[in-house]
């Protein structure tokens, strides 16, 4: 009997609607061919444009839909010209992370043979690691509530044992899954600044306690500044990296740079019961409506969604389709024949999405 999964769709701002539309179309075609699962999609209004029209950035009805859905597919959010009264940007994606306790921000970094990259890659080397960013606390804890006076400003960094234990358990489980499927050696690296801050010494202590529960996996540590260096000099040595919110925010953009840009950077924010899948890039309002946006990051995010749903609900067909979708995008990028402007090509949004569909045999 087919399993049906409801997906809450946040179409976003700027280029958001035009990149999520072909992504949903591909997902519908994959599901239509599967004997083991179906997908239904429900629109969830939110974002900067919605705030400008209604005064609400994340309506209660959309939040309720997100809570009840099996997964959330969220496109690019926010507009630089639309802000809250305190000057901060509209960011429902961060509100979702906090409300649903999506503590694990998963940022894959993959560079396959033949794929363009700013690095001078040694022959035979590929990059395939995952950065896990804690997404609910850290230096983002007091977002919008920092203390500012005429002479000073303060933000509070928070690291809790409860969230850190969940985060590290997730990281080691992911490393085990990657090892079992041949994608990594089974190594988890804790990225911190434990030599300077007591909060990060606390973070590392909790990591070490979880590492002791996984004797078949490798656990090590790296300071965040050294990690940034090694991500440029030897990124193929990494498997799973786990770090605090702000460090992860910065390092994930560096990882996107290794792949050639944010247009190839997918992400997921995962908790115990819910997960949001979205591209790492912004809404690019300067090219909105022109058919020029790169849809590959959100298509890769959709592949992550299928994989997560398949594992969570013991549906191997979904996991297999997630892998097929990811590999189709990688094949399109590696051939270099259909690339959008941000990747050095001349193709448009529809061309790139159609190329992925063709690689899957859907057209």
UniProtKB/TrEMBL annotation:
Residues 6-356 form the Isopropylmalate dehydrogenase-like domain. Signal peptide: none annotated. InterPro entries: ICDH/IPMDH (IPR050501), IsoCit/isopropylmalate_DH_CS (IPR019818), IsoPropMal-DH-like_dom (IPR024084). Transmembrane segments: none annotated. Pfam families: Iso_dh. Keywords: Amino-acid biosynthesis, Branched-chain amino acid biosynthesis, Leucine biosynthesis, Magnesium, Manganese, Metal-binding, NAD, Oxidoreductase. GO terms for molecular function: 3-isopropylmalate dehydrogenase activity; magnesium ion binding; NAD binding. It comes from the Bacteria. PROSITE patterns: IDH_IMDH. Its EC number is 1.1.1.85. GO terms for biological process: L-leucine biosynthetic process. SUPFAM superfamilies: Isocitrate/Isopropylmalate dehydrogenase-like. Its cofactor is Mg(2+); Mn(2+). It is an enzyme of class 1 (oxidoreductase). The keyword Manganese applies. SMART domains: Iso_dh. Belongs to the isocitrate and isopropylmalate dehydrogenases family. LeuB type 1 subfamily. Homodimer. This is 3-isopropylmalate dehydrogenase. It comes from Loktanella salsilacus.
